[in-house]
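for the record, two folds in this file. i put them one after another cuz i was lazy. first one right below, seq on top, structure tokens after. the second one comes after a little note so u can tell where it starts
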Amino acid sequence: MAVAAPSFPGMLRVLALTSLFLQLFLLVSATFRKYRVPALLRSCIWLAYLGGDALAIYALATVFNRHRQTASTDHGSVLEVMWVPVFLVHLGGQDSITAYNIEDNELWARHAVAMSSEAAVAVYVFWRSWSGGQVPESSPALLLFAAGFLKLGERLWALRRASFTRLAAVRSSAAGRRTPAREEEEDAGDDYIPLESYVHLASGYVQSQATGDHVPRPKDNYVFHVHPLIEPELQDVLMELFVDFPAPYPRRLAYLRSFLALEDDDAYEELCALLNQAFQFFYTKKEAAYTVVGIYLRTLHHAPGHRGQCKLQRQSQGRICALLWLADWRFVTSRILPEMQRTVAQFNLIGFATRRRWPTMVVMRIAALFRCKKYVNQHWYLGHLSSTPIIIEFIGKDLKSRWVDDLTNAAAYRRGQWTLRRERCYQELGWSVTELPFDEAVLVWHIATDIYLDCNNGIENPPATADERAAVKCSREISNYMMYLLLFQPDMLMPGTRQSLFAVACREIKHALRDQRQRLDERGVARWISENPNAAQPGDHLAAARKLAEAMMQMNDAGRMLKVISGVWVEMICYSASRCRGFLHAKSLGAGGEFLTVVWLLLHRMGMEVLADKLQKPEIPRHVQILP
């Protein structure tokens, strides 16, 4: 017996209810993109974001085909006309998720073409129903159509406003405008102050913050007028940073002075607040809603219709939307679901190789049967630690010491040379940061750090002082995070990073353990590599790491080596953050953010060089000595 096809009104109801369900799911879950949630939920949010638009477009196309093929004289066409603007409102999306990836903002023109075609379909359906006398003049469909069109316009405005192409053009034109503060700076000639004078004055700020003294005057005839940033300019400054615009020295001095006035906890919270503001700008409507165009569209969208029409219902809906808008789902505290930018991803190479050789879970053995053990192992044992405030404070202390101790090279970070020269071990260890490419240096120092700490300063012999304990903790976590970047985010680690180095190093460790039949843990593998000279073949990364660890052990000064290891890792992560494009930092915010972006913003607020400052700075005078 043949099964009757569902009627058109029934199918339309199914499409409408499904679309409504997806919009409600996005309303509740879109904000969770910033938090460390299971990968399955993140995938569901992505599918709902894509499926919500596709379902609304399909529903509008279905209504269009029905009106094109029939005269639509039945009573059901009135209900169809009511559903069409509802689908338009769904196409307008939720306020908390205008873009899922940063590329969605760049494709705003494509979205505009697609939405224009759907708006044309809605106009056609409405015109056919209006000309047939099925829609009265007092029908609420008119108000729903207006709300749907304004909702589409608001989404397109948010996408276009967050486009990097438009953002760069707008910031370029705005850079030529003269605000009162900039007029005074230009009159004083502050846009052309030399690097040497900037470094001397910045060093004076750091010293005065530590001692409470007045800022010393520079040794030349330049006069500095540093103005604190006002709140409206903060958004512009943040966007210029993401589009890789260089900051003049007076403005960098303003960043440094305002940031040094904050306590450690307040400084960390300010960095997270700035990144949250950037997330709202690129991926939500919140920042666009407070512009002139956004306020105009939102006012019209929520404008009342007829005087007595559903007044109580509109007021209640407005209050609920306002509460959800202001709350921003802040009931999700960091204790339950920490934000991704407030966590440090952890991935250890030796631990991965150990679990790969001796799987300890049934899941790993099942994955081995399906030949996906490597993929499961990488993602299953990927950890996250909520110790970002400690590491940021640790890096901040190193930044301040550079401003005070090294006046010739404080504005830029190297790959570890400064620490090795400061601790007077450049001759023994300098080859590891100067003769190796950066990605290989990260790999070698990662293995050497595990070997040294596990063999000399592990759990059985904990450090005595709080500074040493902080150095051990931060060194391990930064090392594991840099290895995570090498494997999962190679573009952010450094342009041209070879992700294949990870697989090469795993093969080297596997070859080193070829004769080892006893089951070892991570610490045991590190000791095995250290105690067996034949474990590594000459010329490979494992041999270089073992050579580096042996050089550290021969110095017989654990406290000094902790300063060296922690200092080198701070330099490496700052070197990587300062050379990562702002576009990649903005892209990472769509997946919750990266800890490297927090370090990048810390460098910016501390007056250090980021990528644009390094590429656009003038030539350094000959009499200023720069470390190689």
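(here's the note) second protein begins now
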Amino acid sequence: MSRTAPARRLRLGLPRRVFSQVLLMQLAIAAGVAVLATGLFLAPLSNQLDDQAMRRALAIAQTTAAEPQIAEQVKDTPPLPSGPVQREAERIRRATGAEYVVVMDWRGVRWSHPTRSEVGRTVSTDPGQALAGKEIMQIDSGTLGRTARGKVPLYDTHGKIVGAVSVGIAYDSVRARLIHAIPGLFAYAGGALAVGALAAWLISRRVQRQTRDLAFSDISGLLAEREAMLHGIREGVVALDRAGRIRLLNDEARRLLGIGDEAVGRSPDEALGDGRTADVLAGRVTGTDLVTVRGQRVLVANRMPTDDGGAVATLRDRTELEQLGRELDSTHGLIDALRAQDHEHANRMHTLLGLLELEMYEDAVEFVGEVVGDHRATAEQVTEKIEDPRLAALLVGKATVAAERGVALWVSDRTRLPDRLVDPSGLVTIVGNLVDNALDAAAGAPHARVEVELRTEGRTAVLRVRDTGPGIPVEQRELVFTEGWSTKEPPAHRGRGLGLSLVRKLAERQGGSATVGDAGGGGAEFTVVLPDALAEPQPALTAPTSQQAAEEES
């Protein structure tokens, strides 16, 4: 026997699409509001119609009681179905459309009634308040059913109460007026519901376009995934609204830019200050893989506009890659220098071999002394003036590279730098970038020369690097410190236009400055001033006196 799969139970509930859900909710709200408004309108309308009927009955009763002959006839004639009071009351009833006009004496005996057989009988409701001189309005039930009533006292010509007048308006007529008003109310409510339905449809269509017709559960899932992705990726993400204000930062962006939640709601200029980074985020600088420097970090930024007029910028930290690139440049330079030294060493060995073969021993000894002396002189010249070992080693290596490129690297005689640097790594970066830049400018020029002067004024270090290159025009002297600006073709592994920008940022970070001007005799002269670059000198240790030594021994 084959078994059939159990039938799937139908699930009743809201549809998944946002458009349908919003439309149904809006329609339910509009219908509820329409029903509530109709009910709230009908309740006071019923009370208002009741009040109008009671006031109308009271007015008819007051008008009837105001006729003096009725009071006199109640005093002088008996209560007869064909009496003058009955005839006058019926005339008034027919003229006003009232349900009844009852005239009674001070005992509550009727002198008039629409049912003639009731004339002469006592009224079915208590007339005490009216006979006591009060005017009454009420909804009550009597022999003619439920009516809206008005009761007033009946005075004779001497002002004495001789009876009362009671007028009733049939309650069915009041209800009929109310029922008659309901279709109009429903028409207005239906019109309001139709307008609400149209508005709900338009709103739902707009929500559908903005949410890409996703379900609320899908949107919730996307938001959760977005939060996890934004805070989990190792790229900085900055979202900006259509006004250019920052509306979102992930953890990596906060770390790379050095800002926190206080930047949200502010423009990049307000959050980051003036600079290329703010220009890139604001869209004033366009392009792909834009290189910018923030503090000591080298960042690569890309900016993508969004459909709502805002933008999303991504930031990648390329500081380590940039450092590796610079190390690679230095390595290439050293390799070229070693290759040149190898070639030069081979030539010198051949020369030495020739002198030995010719038995010119004294000339050979003199030649070896000259070669060794040149290298020793260069190293001694640097180390005598610069006591910091890292900076001295840098300049010795740069001198070898300069010699290979046909440029004379000279350390000025005024250079004096003690071994008390607060940030030696920063100064090494500054000197290396400036010397590399000067070598690039001077290479190929006649009498190519680069001079480095590094001296101190108290705790302030002043660095000057001069070259004999073409110089820098006045209008470009600020541009050379701008990130990404360069007159050279970028190498394959990294961008150009970062070295001088990094020099200025490092100098400004220490409260100093970096400027460029003309060097004497042509070329450019870069000047970097670093306040508080040197640590306080340590007090010299004095040798103990003979008396102190004796005391210590004892």
